[in-house]
C-alpha cells in the first residue's frame, strides 16, 4: 500500500516506497542490461556503461520517443517531472517496456525553493535523498572541470603578468597567451543560488604580493548553467566530449582572438574529471520502471535537456522512452527540437504538453503564487472564467509543437483541488483547437491515474502524422535565426540588440564555423516574453537581447535577453531550513 | 608480474595492477565485512556502513595501531603514503591481517603539482584514477555543505539589509542576526589551488539593484581546509557530526557574539549533504590489502588526519591498522597525538618516521628541489656529508615521537639512486641516538621490500615500552598551550602574537568551553619553524602568530603562523598539462 499523497509530504511517500524498491542489479537485469554494463553506486543507484550497451544493441530498432514539455509555469512548477514519471508508470501498466530520462536536480533550487525535483505524490523516482543531493557526483564533476579551467586561466594571467617571455618559456615552456582581462567572458561556478557571488572582484593582491592572481571583475554562475553541462548534454560519446572540452572559449586575447581550454592545455585534465559523469545514471520510479538521470536542469539559462546519451540508451532498451526538456515549450521544447535533435539525429514520435489549472489561472489574471507563501484565494476556489482566459497560453504552446511537425498530447495534470467544470473547460477549448487531451491523476494515483495519458500518447505516436521539420536553416545569419525564434515561437514583434550584443554577434558571424553553431536562447521561463511578469500571450513587445555568450565547445551561441541571471538568488524563505537528518537511520527529512 | 617502477610511471603501474585487482565485494568479504555492510561504488570501490560494523564488532579487541609520520619534507614529498601502503603490504607478507587509513587527495595538489597521492612505485592503492579524482564524492560533499552555509549567511545579510524587522519576521519568521560584515571570518571553498580567489570582493550590486548580495571582502580556501573536513575527521558518528555541524561560527554579530550555522538554520541541510561522506571508503593496495580512505589532506592548514571513524573500523577488522597523519611529525604527528587521539580515545602502539636521503640532503644544505624541475646535482651523486649534516632534522622528529611516549621506527624510504654509504650513515646516526631503524625498498619491490620495516614495526608494537602522554593540559590557557607546542615541538625560543591574534585569543579564552577547545596549528610544512626556507633544526627564532581562527564545530582553535595561506597557488608548471583521457578505454593518463 502506498501512502495517500493528499496527506503525506513527498519525502514520506518516497521513504515508504524505498522500503520495497528493487536493487539496482535487479532493475538493470529487468531492463535488459548485462551485469558488466552496470556500475552500482550503493544498492539502489548505478551508472550505465553506455558505450558497451550501444555497441551491443546497435542493430536493435529504437523504441518510441516522447518529449515532455509544458505551458508557461508558475514559480511553483507545473509537474513536468511528475508527469514524465507518471506517464512511464502508466505505460508500464499497459504492458509496455517504458523508461524515463530526467535531469539531476541542482543544489540551488533544491536548497532554495524547490526542495526536490524527483516528481511528486505517487509519481516520483527513488531513492529520493541521494538523487536530490550529491547523487553519483555528476554535477560536482562538472563544477570541478569548469573551475579547473578557470584556475588554469587565472593562474596563467598572473604568471604572464609577472614574467617576461623568456622566463615564461623557461619556467613552463609555454607561449604568451596575452589574455585581455576586460574580455574574460567565462566566470566560475557553484551549484547553489549564491547571489552574493554574481558580481565579484578577484585576484586582490596583498601589499607587495604578486602571487595572489590577477585583479579583475569576475562572476559565478550556477554549475548547471556551465558550458560543461551543455557539452555533457549534447556529446555523443567520450571522444566527442574530449574534443568539445578543448573548444571552450574562456576569454579573448588582446587582438580579439579566442583563448580556449586547448590553449591552456587543460582540456584533457577537465575530461579526466568527467569520465564517470559521461555515463548515465539509473534509478527507478516508485512503481519500478527505470529512470535514466543525466545532466542538469535550467532550460532557461542553459540547454536544459536530459542528455543525448541517456536518450540513445533508453531508446534501445524500451518500447517507449520518455524524455524531458526544461520549462515551457518556447524554451525547452524549442531547444529540444532545433538543437538536441540535430545533435542526436533522433526525432520524437510525440510531445506531451503539461498544463495545470493553477498555471492557467495565473495566465488568466490571478495574482502570482510564490513559493513558501499561502496560495492566493483565486487558486483555492473554482473559477472557470480565469481558467478559460488562461488557455491562450496553452494554445500558444500547442501551436509551437504543431509547428515542429510532431503530434502532441495536452496533459491536464490534475490536482485534487481542481473542479470538474475547470477541467471540462480546458478539454473543450483544446479539443476545439484540434488538440489531443488527456486528464491525468498520476500525482494522486500513480500509474493507474495515468492510463488515459498513456493511451493518448501511444495514439499520438501511432498516428502517422509526424513531419518533423527544423524551425530555421542553420545557414541563416545568427540575427535572423534569433529573430525567427522570437517572432515565430515567442510571438514578439521583433528583436532589439543592445550595442554589446550586436557587436558580439557581428564577430561571431565572421567565424568560419558559424553555420555549425546553434542558437540557445537565455530568457525567463515565467513568460513567453522576456518580462517575467507578463502572463498569457503577451502582445506588442520586442525581445531585448543585451548580451551574447559563446559556448564554443557545446557549439552554441547564447543570446541573453531581459535581466535574467545565470546565478539565481536565495530568497528569504529558503527550503534548507526544513531539511534535517535522522541521525539514527541516516534518513534525510524535509525534502519535498 | 608487476611492472618495473624504475622504468614506468606510477599511473602505468597502477593500470597494470588494476587488470588483476579484486572486486570490492571480494575485498570486503576477505576483511570480514558482511555484504550488507558494503555499499559498492562501481566494481572496485565502496563505502563501509561503519555504524553497523562497529555495533557488530563492539566486543572484539582492537588490532595494533600504527601512525606514519615523517621528517620535514621537500616539496617533492618523502613518500609517507607510499610507506603506509608498503608497510601494509609487508605486514601481509608476514601473515598479518593489515589495513591502511589514508586521506583522499585534494584536486588542488593533484592538478597543481603532485599528480596523485596514492603512494608510488610498487606501493600504491588502486583504482588510481577514481581515487585521485572525484572518488566517491566526499570532498565534493564537504565543499557543498560548506558553501551552503556561506550561501545562507550572505543571503541573510542581504535580506537583513533590505528589510526592517517586521518585514523580515513576516517574510521568513526569523529574528535579525545583525551580522557584522567586517567580522565574517569564514570564506567559501573550492578544491583547486585558485590563488585568484584568495582575496575577493563579493556582493557587488548592479545599478539600483538590491538583490545581488551584500558587498564585502571575502575569500576562498581550498575545500580540504574547510572546518567541515575537520569535523568529518573527528566526528565519532553521524549524531556527533550533526551536533558539530550546528556549532560552526561563521561570523560575529555587531555585539561580538558568534553567528553559527545553527543560528542560520542550515546545519541540518549541511548534514544532509554529508550522510554518505561520513561512511569511510574502501579500496585496495596493488597487493590486495584493504585501504580505508576518509577525509582530506593538508596537515599544515587543517587537522589533516585520516578520520577517527576509519581508524575505529580498521582496528576492529585487522591485526595491524596503519594510519597516516599529514606532513612531518611536528605538524601531523603532534595533531594526531594531542587532538585526534583525544577525540577518538585511541592510542597508538607505534609510530613510523619516514626519512629519505633526498630530504636529509636538503636539510644538510643542498639547494631546494622544486616540482617539475630537474633535481639539483647534489641529489643525484653520493654525498655522505650532506646526509649526515641533515640528520639533525631526523633526530628532532625522533625526539618528538619519544616525547609522546610511543615507540618509534625510522623508515629509510630507499630510492634506487641512494648509495649504501648514505644509507649506512643514517642508520649509524639514528642507532647511536637509540632509535629503531629499518631500510625499506617498498617503492621498488612492494611488500617484499618492506619486510624489514614490517618486522621493526611489530617489534616496536610489542616492545611494552608505551607510555602515551599528552603534551599539555587542556586546562592551560590557550597562549600557554601554543607556547608549549612552539617551544617543545618546534624548538622555538617563544611566540610573538600580533595584536589581532592576541585580541582573538583573549576573546576565545573567555568562552566557557575554552578547556574543551583543542589547539590546531597552521604552519608551513617545509620547516620546523614558520619560515619555509629554514631547513635542518632552526635555532634562535620565535614563532610568529598573526591570526587565530575558531572552528567551533570541530572544537579547534587554529593559530595561523607565518605567511601560510589556506588557499595554495597554481605554479607555472602545473601537472594538469600532462593529464588526458584515452577516449577508447576511458582510462586517464598522466597521473603520477
What is the count of helical runs of chain A?
20
- What's the CATH superfamily of the largest domain in chain A, by name? P-loop containing nucleotide triphosphate hydrolases
Report mean pLDDT of chain A, rounded to a whole number.
94
Strand % of chain A is 15-25%
Count of DSSP E strands of chain A?
A: 24
Provide the gyration radius of chain A in Å: 24 Å
- By helix and strand content of chain A, what is the structural category? alpha/beta
Please give the CATH architecture of the largest domain in chain A. Answer: 3-Layer(aba) Sandwich
The pair of chains with the biggest contact is: A-B, 87 and 87 residues
Q: What is the count of distinct domains of chain A?
A: 3
The main pleated sheet of chain A reads as: 12 strands, mixed
- Percent helix range of chain A: 25-40%
* Multimer state: homodimer
Low-pLDDT residue intervals, each spanning 5 or more residues of chain A: none
Shape of chain A: globular
Alpha-carbon distance between the termini of chain A? 20 Å
CATH fold title of the largest domain in chain A: Rossmann fold
Q: In the CATH hierarchy, what is the class of the largest domain in chain A? A: Alpha Beta
InterPro entries (chains A, B): Formate_THF_ligase, Formate_THF_ligase_CS, P-loop_NTPase
Enzyme class (chains A, B): ligase
Catalytic activity (chains A, B): (6S)-5,6,7,8-tetrahydrofolate + formate + ATP = (6R)-10-formyltetrahydrofolate + ADP + phosphate
Protein name (chains A, B): Formate--tetrahydrofolate ligase
Amino acid at each position: 500500500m502506498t501512502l495517500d499523497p493528499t496527506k503525506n509530504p513527498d519525502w514520506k511517500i518516497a521513504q515508504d516506497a524505498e522500503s520495497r524498491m528493487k536493487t539496482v542489479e535487479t532493475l538493470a537485469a529487468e531492463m535488459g542490461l548485462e551485469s558488466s554494463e552496470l556500475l552500482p553506486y550503493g544498492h539502489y543507484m548505478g551508472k550505465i556503461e553506455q558505450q558497451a550497451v550501444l555497441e551491443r544493441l546497435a542493430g536493435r530498432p529504437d523504441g518510441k520517443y516522447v518529449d515532455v514539455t509544458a505551458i508557461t509555469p508558475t514559480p511553483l512548477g507545473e509537474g513536468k517531472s511528475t508527469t514524465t514519471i507518471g506517464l512511464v508508470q502508466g505505460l508500464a501498466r499497459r504492458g509496455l517496456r517504458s523508461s524515463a530520462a530526467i535531469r539531476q536536480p541542482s543544489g540551488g533550487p533544491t536548497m532554495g525553493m524547490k526542495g526536490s525535483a524527483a516528481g511528486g505524490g505517487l509519481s516520483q523516482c527513488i531513492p529520493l535523498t541521494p538523487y536530490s543531493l550529491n547523487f553519483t557526483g555528476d554535477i560536482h564533476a562538472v563544477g570541478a572541470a569548469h573551475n579547473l579551467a578557470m584556475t588554469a586561466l587565472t593562474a596563467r594571467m598572473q604568471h604572464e603578468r609577472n614574467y617576461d617571455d623568456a622566463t615564461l618559456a623557461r619556467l613552463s615552456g609555454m607561449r604568451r597567451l596575452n589574455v585581455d582581462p576586460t574580455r574574460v567572458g567565462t566566470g566560475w561556478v557553484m551549484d547553489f543560488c549564491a547571489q552574493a557571488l554574481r558580481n565579484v572582484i578577484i585576484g586582490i593582491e596583498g601589499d607587495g604580493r604578486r602571487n595572489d592572481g590577477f585583479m579583475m571583475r569576475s562572476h559565478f554562475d550556477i554549475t548547471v548553467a556551465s558550458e560543461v553541462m551543455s557539452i555533457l548534454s549534447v556529446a555523443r560519446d567520450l571522444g566527442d566530449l574530449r574534443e568539445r572540452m578543448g573548444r571552450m572559449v574562456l576569454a579573448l586575447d588582446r587582438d580579439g582572438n579566442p583563448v580556449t581550454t586547448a590553449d591552456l592545455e587543460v582540456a584533457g585534465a577537465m575530461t579526466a574529471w568527467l569520465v564517470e559523469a559521461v555515463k548515465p545514471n539509473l534509478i527507478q520510479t516508485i512503481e519500478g520502471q527505470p529512470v535514466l538521470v543525466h545532466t542538469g536542469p535550467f532550460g532557461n539559462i542553459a540547454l536544459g535537456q536530459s542528455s543525448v546519451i541517456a536518450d540513445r540508451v533508453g531508446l534501445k532498451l524500451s518500447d517507449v522512452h520518455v524524455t524531458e526538456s526544461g520549462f515551457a515549450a518556447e524554451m525547452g521544447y524549442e531547444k529540444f527540437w532545433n538543437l538536441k535533435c540535430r545533435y542526436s539525429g533522433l526525432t520524437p514520435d510525440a510531445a506531451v504538453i503539461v498544463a495545470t489549472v493553477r498555471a492557467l489561472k495565473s495566465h488568466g489574471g490571478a495574482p502570482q503564487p510564490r513559493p513558501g507563501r499561502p496560495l492566493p484565494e483565486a487558486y483555492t476556489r473554482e473559477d472557470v472564467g480565469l481558467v478559460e482566459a488562461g488557455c491562450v497560453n496553452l494554445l500558444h504552446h500547442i501551436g509551437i509543437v504543431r509547428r515542429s511537425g510532431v503530434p502532441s498530447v495536452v496533459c491536464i495534470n490534475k490536482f485534487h483541488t481542481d473542479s470538474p467544470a475547470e477541467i471540462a473547460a480546458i478539454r473543450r477549448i483544446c479539443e476545439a483547437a484540434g488538440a489531443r487531451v488527456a486528464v491525468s491523476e498520476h500525482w494522486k494515483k500513480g500509474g493507474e491515474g495515468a492510463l488515459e495519458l498513456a493511451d493518448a500518447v501511444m495514439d499520438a505516436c501511432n498516428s502517422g502524422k509526424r513531419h518533423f521539420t527544423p524551425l530555421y536553416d542553420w545557414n541563416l545569419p545568427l540575427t535572423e535565426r534569433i529573430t525567427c525564434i522570437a517572432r515565430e515561437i515567442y510571438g514578439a514583434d521583433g528583436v532589439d540588440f543592445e550595442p554589446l550584443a550586436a557587436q558580439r554577434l557581428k564577430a561571431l558571424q565572421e567565424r568560419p564555423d558559424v553555420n555549425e553553431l546553434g542558437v540557445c536562447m537565455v530568457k525567463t521561463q515565467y513568460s513567453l516574453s522576456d518580462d517575467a511578469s507578463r502572463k498569457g500571450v503577451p502582445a506588442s513587445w520586442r525581445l531585448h537581447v543585451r548580451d551574447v555568450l559563446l559556448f564554443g565547445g557545446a557549439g552554441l551561441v547564447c543570446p541573453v535577453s531581459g535581466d535574467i541571471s545565470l546565478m539565481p538568488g536565495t530568497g528569504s524563505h529558503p527550503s534548507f531550513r526544513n531539511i534535517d537528518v535522522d541521525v539514527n537511520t541516516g534518513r534525510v527529512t524535509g525534502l519535498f
